């Protein structure tokens, strides 16, 4: 039996219509579909009724399948000649360890394709009315891992690099470390009145937002027990949501 093929596919950030056409094709053609926690459940309905669906979701504290087990599954199914789609939230190469999976496949000589996706880092702020860059306000943005996921190495972030007022900071996986993140940014020179936003379940109909400043957002989040999955946005662009907000809670999900 010949070797199969693996697609490392980005599912987009939540709203199921934000998957790419190519991504959808790879769901439809999969004989084995291995999907993560942050993949929109509606997308799984496009899998063939004969496909084997494997949940490989990870929670920060509680790993359903260890990364090594996921890698092994990809390799084993492909070696059995199957078409495997590895469906990951957002873009497969923005955190989430898609790069490591591609390396493992390459090392085993398995054919694979990367199908990029719409990353939550940019799309979730957009659904909260926040453009990550804006002429005259922010000419750069950085996407940072908040390191609360125990998968991530314990290296500390060089916060001094992110003190520039003309840069938007987008922090993923950071809610558990919010007081330390905001404290570090202020300690390195970002003013306490810098606008900040938290966006939970962005792009889903149940999206929630919390707005504040670097100085008060951690307290506000604690008061309402704001939880993951959420994107933290820091920078003057956050204020633009007052003009641009377009996606209100309760907007019906688009059907595909
Ligand atoms: N590859 C993904 C990111 C994986 S890391 C991407 O490109 O989007 C997982 C983190 O992404 C979560 O902890 C959260 O910070 C963020 N995230 C993903 N989907 C999200 C959503 N719909 N709303 C808010 N945050 C989200």
UniProtKB/TrEMBL annotation:
It is an enzyme of class 2 (transferase). Residues 5-217 form the Tetrapyrrole methylase domain. PROSITE patterns: SUMT_2. GO terms for molecular function: uroporphyrin-III C-methyltransferase activity. It holds the Pfam family TP_methylase. InterPro entries: 4pyrrol_Mease, 4pyrrol_Methylase_sf, 4pyrrole_Mease_sub1, 4pyrrole_Mease_sub2, CobA/CysG_C, Siro_Cobalamin_biosynth, Uropor_MeTrfase_CS. The keyword Transferase applies. The keyword Transferase applies. GO terms for biological process: methylation; siroheme biosynthetic process. Keywords: Methyltransferase, Porphyrin biosynthesis, S-adenosyl-L-methionine, Transferase. Its EC number is 2.1.1.107. CDD domains: SUMT. NCBIfam families: cobA_cysG_Cterm, PRK06136.1. Belongs to the precorrin methyltransferase family. PANTHER family: S-ADENOSYL-L-METHIONINE-DEPENDENT UROPORPHYRINOGEN III METHYLTRANSFERASE, CHLOROPLASTIC, SIROHEME SYNTHASE-RELATED. This is Uroporphyrinogen-III C-methyltransferase. It comes from Effusibacillus lacus.
